[in-house]
Amino acid sequence: MELVARPDVKASEGSRDAGGRFATVRDRLVLFEIVQEVALVAARLDPDPYKEPTTVAQSAWNSARHSLRSRYGHIPQANEVCRQLPDRHGRPWPWRDLLELVFDEQRDAKKTWEERLSELDRPISHEHVYFALNFVRRQLGPDAALRFPHQYEEARTRLLEDAHELDSTQEALRQRLPTRGQIETACAGSWERALELAGLQSSGGEAEKGTPIPVIEAVLGFYEEHGYLPTRLELVETARREGVLLERTGDEPWFTFIERAQQLARERGLPEPPPYGTKPAGPDAENERGETVGTKGFYSRVQVLERVREFAATLPPATSATDKRWREFQRDRAGVPSLNVIRRHGGLRELLREASRPDWRRRAEAWDEQAVTAPRGGLGRPRSPKREEVEMLLRERGEASARELAEALGYTVDNVRRYLRQLKRAGRIEPTHEFARARNQRYRPAGVGESEAS
Amino acid sequence: MDVFAHADVTVPERGALEANRRPEHRPRRRGGRSKSWSEVELWRLREAGRFSGDPALCDPLRLIAEWRRHPFAVALRELADTSPTSFGRAADLAAIEAPKLGRPRLPGDWPAVYLAYVLSGCPALQPWYNRSSSSGLWEICGFEKRPSYQLVHLRFAEMEDAWPAFIAVVQDLIGLAKAADPRIGEIVFVDASGWKSSAVLEHACIDEEACLRAGGKPSGRLRSDTAEEVLPHHWAEADADPDQDSSAGTRTRGPIVSARRANGAVVDYRLFTVKEHLYRSLDTTSGLRRYVGARTWFGGFYLAATDFFTGLPLAAQVFAADIQEWEGVPALYRDLLAAVGELPYIVSVDKGFATRAFHEFNTRRGIAVVGPRRKYPGRTELRDWRTDRFDEHGIPRCQYCGGEGEQDSPGMGLAFRQDDEPVIRFRCLLPLRPECKRTQSIRCSEEWLMLLPLSRTTELYHAVRYARSNLENTFGLVRDRFAIAGKDLTGQLARPGVPPQRLRASAGLLLDWFRLVLRQGWLEPIALALQPTTSESVLLSGRRDRASGEIMHVGVGAERLGRLRRERDEAQLELPYGAAWEETKRWLELERS
């Protein structure tokens, strides 16, 4: 069977198919070229000398198509061409849109058509998750593990490749086995939740870990250890790391557990925990690995992925992770990298995939080790020496006001005041009078007053 | 080959469909092998039935001259010869009640003249006769002189009983075409259109008291309402419960009675009862149909099986209006079988035929019915059709896991058990349990309307539904060309009754197929110079590569199929459901534990 109509072979002269019928099946990508060529001819034939080919009517196109018969063989009518280029729902391509596309040099016809054909994201229900996970587990055999999402992903790929062995089709499998991303989206980013929905949650594991402990107790334990109230994911991760089995939380919102934990902390006389979502500043604000949370604009891969996992855990069910939602998540939260940082690390989608891998932390640490840190101050504009000059002059004079220093150094008073503020904040200088607020405040190097007093 | 339980199915009558639901023998396909559904395709020979582009095919004189040169004309003349010395009546000559031979008949080809009359499209004989008085038609048809009007009228009236002769020749012509292109008759469109009798109904109540009790003095003459007034009520019938024929009581044909007129002539009348009043009509063969909205239709139906490939009717039946449309189907299929040599694979119908009896009739003969569903009591929404055994689109569900079944792969689909009960063989599309891997079957009798040989998830099904609308003009064409099944004053035949309509319908079929085989070159013209045909066949249904699943040709049903898939997605029909699924869930839990 001819896949592309050859110029020298007319439709009626083509080869016969299995049923003995003449059949010419045209490569549909050639249709774009035919539409363009015939539209140009139709525009030339139009009485209007300024006729645009993009505005050619179907009737005019149909009349003009015969002139190119020698080149393309039988050319179907315009409506048939539109029908041969349907979208994912089988709807024909609108004629005007098709003409605009073929004459638009900025657009690739093949790519545009593939976009029209591509499937939209289907809403995935919990029933889909249940069926998909159980089906894949059944196909993998009794010893199969679906503890981690990548195991599901690998199994799904394998099943799609071997669809014929299952007496099924790839199309049917694809429809019934959602991708890992779809499942995670349906389960608020939590693979644990997916396993729980499918009834596959830690089969046999609960017996090993002993009696489950109440979630509120676990929250309080976390608070006593780390000094802040954990997110659901943080608590689950910690519990898994420590081999503790938690009671099931059901569909109750996480914040109700937090409120109850805060109340219980008050009843037990524990110090008031910081508001949920915040961690105490200072040396106490460390994560479980002893690293300070404050990043000062620099985030390691591990830190980025930790925040991304927190983000995924806070997403409501059936909500996709978007850049916009990340910005909302980042707003008013300390220690959460900006979207620019996320993009530098490959984008939110890539990070979500990475964060759902079982060995994400090890991989992130390896990443961080291999990363070449840019030398601080080594790049960009060199730092101004004015601050050091101000401090040096102050040490020479022992005591001076901003105006005196400005006059001596030749800088503006505002500039000098800014450097003084920086030095004061860094603890290098101090005001001569503690409570003075006057504009003629005088400064001296830090510690000079104390030594004089002693 | 006798696929009809009752031999006398050539005449549509009440209860014909019910009586012929089960065939005595299942019809065999041409070549002894039935095609798989993936081999059946919807093709159309574009503009095949549009003969107006070739003047030679529209000129009655040239066409009839050509017709008379072919052996088909000789066969028709012999078969339709109504003279006492004809071959068909020769056996009666020696009988005691042998007909009078009389003087020799005027030599000439009366069927050819009748064909010319039908080709003229004139619904009345007198104007046509007057117009043809100086025509060369009579010489062409072998008449030495022009016969009188009375003689033409008499011979044409005699020929009304010889309509099977026309049908026999049509079947030969269709057989010729089918041998040239086997796509003819694979997919047909069956529908009926009403025709109106030119006769009127006269009030004929004898019992004056009963007449008064029935509501006083009714109108003296009752005529059919116009088609525009009647059609909405006719369509409304398609939405009524087909199992309860609400109009059964309003379609009573009374007996034929003889009455003597004032001039002494004895004439036959058919009696009809309308709202307890007695009416009579000189047209004794037409039927009366009264709709719920007090609309009256006096006439009959023209039921045709139109070929999707050529767009021409392959067979037609004409019967009285008080008989339901589907009652003519057994007789129609018998003609179809005789013409094409096999029954169609797919029959496309409208809502009026969506009855269980009609579906059963077709499924038992291996024919897939494609058409819309009608309203059934208690099933107001699509979802109401869903059961554990099949979903709302008629797709069988796995009896072990409740998942979607698949009936389109090789070896699956319609099959017949040893007791000739039709079943749909299918397999679970995604086997979850070990039992799901077995081939399963479901009896079509569980719901004839839903369990179809051709799955609704195939593109072919939707392509046929889409392309059907183009064939609705079949009736318009035969009205314009041959004045068949006229339903208004300008189109209705002057001669009332079923026989003239039936003869005209048969002649129309003959003319159409004769012209088609000539034009397509399937029959070599002898003297007629025809323009070379430019019509080409186009594939309307889609093609998909079975191995890769890649769509190679987008069919006209792609959009409808896309809509159906969206519906299925929204209803999550790809997932298992029902009691079998609940059982499977318990089984999965047990297995895990």
Low-pLDDT residue spans of chain B: 1-9
Helix content of chain A: 40-55%
What average pLDDT do the residues of chain A reach? Answer: 78
User: How would you characterize the largest beta sheet of chain A?
Assistant: 3 strands, antiparallel
Provide the β-strand percentage band of chain B: 15-25%
Largest sheet of chain B: 6 strands, mixed
Question: What is the end-to-end distance of chain A?
Answer: 104 Å
Short recap of the structure:
The complex is a heterodimer of chains A (454) and B (593). With 454 residues, chain A is an all-alpha fold. Chain A is 51% helix and 2% strand.
Protein traits:
heterodimer; A: 454 residues; mainly alpha; 3-stranded antiparallel β-sheet; 24 helices; disordered N terminus; B: 593 residues; alpha+beta; 5-stranded antiparallel β-sheet; 18 helices
Characterise this structure.
The complex is a heterodimer of chains A (454) and B (593). Chain A has a three-stranded antiparallel sheet. Chain A has helices at 28-45, 58-64, 69-72, 78-84, 95-102, 109-117, 126-140, 149-161, 170-176, 180-186, 191-197, 205-209, 215-226, 232-242, 254-267, 301-314, 323-330, 339-344, 348-355, 360-370, 386-397, 402-409, 413-425, 448-453, and strands spanning 400-401, 429-431, 442-445. By secondary structure, chain A is mainly α. Helices cover 51% and strands 2% of the residues of chain A. In chain A, helix 22 (402-409) crosses helix 23 (413-425). Chain B is an alpha+beta fold and 593 residues long. Chain B is 31% helix and 16% strand. Chain B contains 18 helices and 19 strands. Chain B has helices at 16-19, 55-58, 60-69, 71-79, 110-120, 125-131, 137-140, 149-159, 163-180, 208-213, 227-239, 329-340, 356-363, 459-468, 474-482, 498-519, 558-570, 579-592, and strands spanning 43-45, 187-196, 201-203, 221-222, 253-260, 266-274, 277-281, 287-290, 296-307, 313-320, 346-348, 368-370, 405-406, 413-416, 422-428, 439-443, 537-539, 543-544, 551-553. In chain B, helix 3 runs antiparallel to helix 5 and helix 4 (71-79) runs antiparallel to helix 9. Chain B is globular and about 100 Å long. Classes of the chains: A mainly alpha (454), B alpha+beta (593). At the A-B interface, helix 4, helix 7 and helix 9 of A face strand 17, helix 17 and helix 18 of B.
